[in-house]
Amino acid sequence: MPKRVVGVYLLLNFLVSLSMAYMAGTYITFLRHHGLDYVSAIIPNIAYFVTIFIFELPTGAIADVFGRKFSFVLSCFIWVAAKVVYFFADNLLAFVAAEIIAAIGQTCASGAFEAWVVDSLRHEGYKGETVKIFSSGLKTKQAAMIVGAIVGTWVSKDNIAMPWIAGAITFFITAILAMFLMKEKYFVKKNFSFVSGCKEVGKTIQRGGECVLKNKNIRFVITSSAVLAFAVQAPNMQWQPFFQGLGVNRLFFGWLFAFIAIAAMIGSHYGPWLLQKIKSERKAISITLSLVGLFVFLTAIGAFKLFLALPAFLTHEIFRGLYQPIKSQYLNENIASEERATLNSFESLTSHVFGAAGLVVSGVLAKELSVEWCWLIFGLATILASWKINKK
C-alpha cells in the first residue's frame, strides 16, 4: 500500500475534521443563544443544503477537469471565510450568509478528496480494497472530532463564538499543507478558455448522469445515502436540547460529543469485519440502515431516563459509523476513474437534498409535537425505508 498517499489522506482528513469539530458540542446552543427556536434554527442549514444542491455537481466536475488538489485547497480557503463570518454573526441573516459560504467550500472538496485518494492509490499500483483505508479515514476523522469538540467547548466558556476562530485558523493551516503535500503527477492539466472549460464541465456532468441511470448499484447507494441523510437530521440537530432536558450541563456537551465520536469510530473499525462476514455490500448497507433507525427509535423510548437514552443513542452512532466505509467502497467500485469526482458529488448532492428535507420535517415535528415524538417517527420511517430499498 502506498504509505505516503494514505498518510497525506489521513493527515488532511484529521485537520479538516478538527476544523469543523470545534463547534460540534455547542453549535445548536450557539444558535439558540442568539434567539433561534427549533424551526428558525434549521433555516441556516436549509440555506447550506440548497447551496450544496446548486454547486455540488459543477464543483465535482471542475475537480475532474481541473484537478482534485485545486478543488481541495480552494475548499479550505472558502471554509476560512465561512468561519470568520460566523464569528462576527449575531442574527439569522448573517448565519445564512455564513452557511452559504461554507456550503460552497464543502462542495469543492466533497467529491474531489475521495477521488484524489482512489486515483492516487491506483497510480501508485495499489489494487487492493479501499474499505480499510476509508475505515481508517473515518476513525481519524472521529479522533479529530473528539479533540475538536472538547477544545471547542472549553474555549466557548467565556465567548460562545470563539470556536469559529479556532476553525478558521486550522482550515488555513490545512490549505497550506495541502498545497505542498498533495501530488497529482498522473493528472493532465487542461488549458481551456472559459467557454471551452464550461463545455467540458457540462460534458462531464452529462456522462455522470448517464452512469447513474445505467448502473443499478450506483442508484442503490444514492438511495441509501438519501435515506440516511434524511433520518439523521433529527438527532443531529436536536441532541443537545434532548440531553439538556435530561439534566446534562452545556459545558459537558464536548465530552458527550467525544463519546459520540468514539461510538462512530467503533462502527467504522468493524465495517470491514461486517463486510467480510456478510460478503455483500448491498446487504450490509441495508442492515446498518435498519439498525440506525431502530436505535433512534429506542433512544426516544428511553427519553425519560439518561441511563436508558444515552446507550441507545450511542449505539445508533455505531451503526452510522459502520455504514460509511462500506458505502464508500461500494460506490467507488462502480465508478470509472474519469467520472469519480462527479459521481461522488452526485451521491453527496442527493444526500444533501434529502438532508434538507429531513431538517424541515424534524424541525416542524419537534416544535409541534416534541423532540421525543420526532425521533420515534424518524426511527420507524428509517426502518421501513431500509426494507423497501433492499427489495428493489
Describe this structure in words.
- With 392 residues, this protein is an all-alpha fold.
- It has a single domain (3-391), classed as MFS general substrate transporter like domains (Growth Hormone, Chain: A).
- It has helices spanning 3-21, 27-33, 42-66, 68-88, 92-110, 112-123, 131-155, 162-181, 194-214, 216-231, 233-244, 253-269, 271-278, 281-301, 306-333, 340-368, 371-391.
- α3 packs parallel to α5 (92-110).
- The longest helix is centred in the last third of the chain and has 29 residues, at 340-368.
- The chain is globular and about 55 Å long.
- It starts with a helix and ends with a helix.
- CATH-scheme architecture: Up-down Bundle
Structural class estimated from helices and strands: mainly alpha
CATH topology: Growth Hormone, Chain: A
What's the quaternary structure here? single chain
Mind summarizing the main beta sheet?
Answer: none
What coarse outline follows from CA principal-axis ratios?
globular
What does the average pLDDT come to? 84
Number of helices: 17
Radius of gyration: 20 Å
The helix content is: over 70%
Low-confidence stretches: none
Query: What is the terminal-to-terminal distance?
Result: 36 Å
Number of domains: 1
- Any idea what the CATH superfamily is called? MFS general substrate transporter like domains
Q: Give the SSE order as H and E letters.
A: HHHHHHHHHHHHHHHHH
Total strands: the figure is: 0
Strand content: under 5%
Offer a few descriptive terms.
392 residues, mainly alpha, Growth Hormone, Chain: A, globular
